[in-house]
Fold this sequence. Notes:
alpha+beta
Amino acid sequence: MQADLGPNERAWLAKQPATAIVDDMFCCHGTPTSDTTYLLEHVTPHGVFLHSEEAISAAIQGISQSLIVCGHSHSARIVQLANGQLIVNPGSVGIPAYNDDLPYPHVMQAGSPHARYAIVERNAHGWQVEHYAICYAWHEAAATARHNGRENLARWLATGWAQLAD
C-alpha cells in the first residue's frame, strides 16, 4: 500500500521510467503512453471487453519489439497480432481483483486468490509463454488488509472476486 512506503521508496519509484526496452521486449504498465489505460481491454457501460486487434495495434504504433509485456488490468492474457508481435499480461502477483470507476464502473477479477506471473522465453519458433497461478498465504494478506481497514481489499485478496458496490 502506498501509505506503507517511506520517502526513500517514493523517491526511488518517482525516478523510474514509465517504459523499458530489454533486447526485443517492450515493457509498460498500461499502454506505451499511459499508466492508467488498459492496453488489451476496453471498458464500456456494459462491461470490460478485449480490444480489437486494430485498437491494440494503434495503441502500440511505433513499438518495434516482437514482445510487449503490459499489466494494469491484472488479467493474465496472451494476444498475438497479425504482424507477429506478441503481447503478454502476466496477471497480478498481489491483487487478483479490484473495482474501478473510470471510465465507467467496472470490476477486474481473476476468480481465485492465486498470485499470477509469467515466464517468457524465446525459442526457435518464437516466444513461449508460461502463465503461473500459485498458492501463497493469501489469508494472511487479507488479514493485514482487514487490520488496516480495507475490507474490500481483504475480500479481493482472499477470494479473487470483486463487486461493483464496494
